[in-house]
Write a structure and sequence with these properties.
By secondary structure, this protein is mainly alpha-helical. The chain has a single domain, classed as Helix Hairpins (Orthogonal Bundle). The protein is built from four helices and two strands; from the N terminus they run ααβαβα. Strands 1-2 form a two-stranded antiparallel sheet. It starts with 13 loop residues before the first helix and ends with a helix.
Length: about 160
């Protein structure tokens, strides 16, 4: 009896597909929790600050930037670890040699939906990459709403 050839980055292995889907759900859930808790901390922290609106708004902006960088790193590390565990998860063309910073770069391009096209995912890993773009878009717009509300609050005060 002949066996099917193993295709790196193929969709033939349901265990691999389910693993990528579960990893994606965990990473997205973690990023949403980090974002929620981070914005909650920023809201409480900014409410206790004294001083000009400028100081409040700048601290809020820097805080939001830190949150996004952290979330980009979470996705980048997840991609890096998945590809270290098993090549059946897929591959990312354009990242040679495999450096964690290349995965974080790819994650930043995906998260922000810039999509330069210089790095291309293949295989089941594309599910995580596509979901990262959606999650990044949602988290970025959430931050924009947060920033808008904070600016309204503090600019009205001055």
């Amino acid at each position: 009896m002949a066996t099917a050839p193993v295709v790196v980055g193929g969709y033939h292995h349901w265990g691999v597909n389910v693993s990528v889907a579960l990893a994606t759900a965990i990473v997205v859930g973690l990023c949403v929790l980090v974002h929620y808790e981070g914005l909650s901390l920023l809201t409480r922290g900014l409410a206790h600050l004294r001083g000009k609106a400028r100081r409040h708004i700048l601290r809020g902006i820097f805080g939001v930037l830190v949150l996004h960088v952290l979330e980009i790193w979470i996705f980048g590390l997840a991609l890096y670890v998945l590809l270290l565990i098993d090549p059946l998860f897929g591959r990312i063309h354009g990242i040679e040699p495999h450096s964690i910073f290349d995965y974080v770069y790819f994650s930043a391009v995906t998260y922000t939906t810039v999509g330069f096209g210089d790095v291309i995912p293949f295989g089941p890993l594309r599910f995580m990459v596509g979901t990262e773009a959606l999650a990044g878009f949602v988290l970025l717009t959430w931050s924009a709403s947060f920033t808008f509300v904070e600016m309204q609050r503090y600019w009205k005060r001055d």
